[in-house]
């Protein structure tokens, strides 16, 4: 609306009918009928539904980008640089495919595959970050939390739902203690997985540059490290889980459990 900015037209109309209703009450009933008709028509209007969906997707992408950036901010400069190099390689792969005028579905599929690989790479870097900062003090603190939860579970007044929640938390804490005890081995596994993803992206760039026929980039990687349990992500476990749901289109990544 001129001079008013972004104001819904139906709201302006409703205000107008409300003012006119003081002159004649019939305008109030007329305004109510018009407002009801407008809302019903918008509810089933495909264009309006597409507009709402696009705005929701934009907000969702913004939230996802913010959560992802928060995870990146946790990383040390060296890890950030490593993630940046991988991102640059992924961009080069897409540029080659777009330059060869590959089919749109091939470019779209490979863009999603590269996004998935970058997300997996970031998760591995976050897991490595928490293992790097872990130490004996963390192990002792976790052990105290475990003892506290074990004592709380002995309380007969605890409800069943709360008991289940505490048991789940206890299982995660025990796994984190186990991770700390096997810290060196797990870090070696993570380093191996990081190198493998880098090699896969490098191979994708070579294939895109050398071969005339576009190829689909695979995201099916059998990891040496265990990211499924979420116990490697420390305080970022909730954010990781939320972003995993946002990247739900990703192809399943095979995990090799190493206990």
How would you describe the overall organization of this protein?
There is one protein chain. The protein has 259 residues and is mainly α. The protein has 2 domains: 9-43, no CATH class; 77-246, no CATH class. It has helices at residues 9-21, 26-43, 46-74, 77-99, 104-133, 136-153, 160-181, 183-210, 237-246. 15% of the residues are buried. Residues 54-60 and 249-259 have low confidence and may be disordered.
**Major sheet size, sense and barrel closure:** none
Stretches where pLDDT is under 50 for at least 5 consecutive residues are 54-60, 249-259
Spatial shape: flat
- Oligomerization state: single chain
The total beta strand count reads 0
The run of helices and strands is HHHHHHHHH
Index terms:
single chain; about 260 residues; mainly alpha; 2 domains; flat; disordered C terminus
């Amino acid at each position: 609306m001129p001079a008013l900015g972004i104001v819904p037209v139906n709201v302006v109309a409703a205000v107008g009918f409300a003012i006119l209703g003081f002159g004649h009450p019939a305008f109030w009933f007329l305004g109510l009928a018009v407002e009801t008709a407008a809302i019903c028509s918008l509810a089933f209007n495909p264009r309006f539904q597409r507009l709402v969906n696009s705005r929701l997707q934009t907000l969702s992408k913004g939230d996802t980008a913010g959560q992802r950036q928060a995870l990146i901010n946790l990383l040390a400069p060296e890890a950030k640089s490593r993630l940046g190099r991988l991102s640059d390689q992924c961009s080069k792969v897409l540029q080659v495919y777009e330059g060869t005028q590959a089919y749109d579905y091939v470019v779209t599929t490979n863009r999603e595959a590269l996004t998935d690989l970058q997300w997996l790479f970031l998760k591995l870097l976050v897991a490595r970050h928490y293992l790097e900062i872990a130490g004996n003090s963390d192990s002792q603190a976790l052990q105290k939390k475990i003892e506290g939860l074990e004592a709380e579970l002995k309380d007969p007044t605890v409800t069943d739902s709360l008991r289940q929640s505490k048991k789940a938390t206890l299982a995660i804490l025990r796994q984190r203690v186990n991770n700390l005890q096997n810290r060196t081995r797990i870090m070696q596994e993570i380093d191996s997985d990081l190198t493998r993803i880098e090699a896969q992206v490098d191979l994708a760039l070579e294939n895109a540059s050398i071969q005339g026929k576009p190829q689909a980039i695979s995201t099916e990687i059998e990891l040496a490290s265990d990211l499924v349990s979420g116990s490697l992500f420390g305080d970022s476990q909730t954010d990781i889980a939320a972003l995993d749901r946002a990247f739900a289109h990703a192809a399943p990544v095979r995990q090799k459990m190493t206990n």
